[in-house]
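Re: the pair you flagged

First of the two:
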Amino acid sequence: MKVHQIRNATMLIEAGNQAILIDPMLGAKGSSAPPFTLFRFKPRRNPIVHLPTNATQLVAKTTHCLITHLHPDHLDKAGEDFLRLRNIPITCSIKDEKALKSRGLNVVQSIDYWRTTDFLDGKITGIPAVHGYGFVAVPMGNVMGYHIALPNEKTIYISSDTIYTPDVHKVLTEWKPDLAVVAAGSAQLDIFQPLLMNMEDILKFMKNAPHKVLANHLEAVNHCPTTRTALRQAVTQHHLTTKVLIPEDGESIVL
């Protein structure tokens, strides 16, 4: 299995003859969304970085797409256009199925929370996610994480945009994924509490994960202040360097 970090939460998972695209935000720098914060952090249009030079080559391999939620930093117009043009089969949350179909996308499967169902040649389970601490999680809407188990491959838990919850803890400690993906950018709007795990909970996630952890959702949108450098320093201070992967955009990891 190969995992390619493309940008933000966008990844490509190659497993056998499948190439699963996760949350495609494929627009050019500054073309996908207005600034998510105007005052707390520098108001730059999103994404704030270019796609890596190998992004087109990687995305062209896509055989299937998995969408965690509908925010524009996880599915932008360019991502939609790519999926529509190629008629890529899509798996999504049962709560997002209607909206995605209304956009002309090829939704072939929708998943409910804690339901395990067939996925490609293996199984997939929808895992609840809570997009923020306190009240802000309500307007941020529904998000779904996924636990993926394909035959003869490592198991993967894509936690998506969430804080650390009992559901997250259960997957890490009871399901014991071989790779757990955490959105580590500590996103925050101009008001309210953070939308993603703070550093304390990111480290808790990393410590409780039984095997490898991949940190993404970094340095690509203007409301995510955590940098790769700061995260690597924290990981080093807590003696987690042998467990945690913090790939650059365009970097590939073999599991």
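Second of the two:
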Amino acid sequence: MELSAVIVSYNVRELLRGALQSLIAAAQATEHEIIVVDNNSSDGSAGMVSREFPSVRLIVSDSNEGFASACNRGILASSGEYILILNPDTVTRPDAITRALDFIKTVPDAGAAGAHLTDKNGKFLPESKRGFPSPLTSLFRFTGLGRLFPRSAFFNAYYLGDKPENETCRADILTGAFMLIRRKALDEAGLFDTSFFMYGEDIDLSWRIRKAGFSNYYLHDVHITHFKGSSSGQEMETSVRHFWNAMIIFSEKHLGKGWHVPVRVAVSLLKWLSLTRLRVARTVKK
């Protein structure tokens, strides 16, 4: 088997349908399998996959076990030489799979490859290519200095601001919305860390692939549309908590011990500010 595509889904039935339709069309020239891991959705997603996509292998969890754990279940059930981690809220362009596979197969040091992601309005998503989130890099990102100097290799290292979006380049970090991984690289780097429930697991795996001696590449000519759905206020609060908690997990894995306490303090403050802003906005809307 050349390609195994793994999609983890939770309560996004209509988006998942579109993701599967576009992926199947894009992968038709490639020997492949598609595995959907449903994280105990309540919107009929699993039934839709069974009825409408009988060729797709469906794994249904009896609980929402998080993105990292569900990805691992899909990966362990797969057999492809290359593994594609794909979000269910994406649309794959017709030539994306062929282009990505052609690249990774011909570049020996490529452990993983990402795509040129755009939102539903066609706007480039900067998380398509990222640098290592060091304390200084992250400080510039969250204080807005990166936005003031978007093309700066120093101030916007978080999003590799000096690397044009229309050029393929090495990137420290790729996004789990579209991550094509060489199985050999995954065998050496290890699976997703299930300490991350959601957010941060793609950053962690990208960096471990780098540490295993491979390179990650951003592919400018592999185009994916990534829809970011809206959530309720309570879901947004949960997402914010998971995001900042993931930053702590990552820092304590990959930064020196001297950074652990300062990062925890900074993250606690930023999490409080983020949650306060959400609650104030929700109160104003009422």
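Confidence is low (pLDDT under 50) at residues 230-234.

-B.
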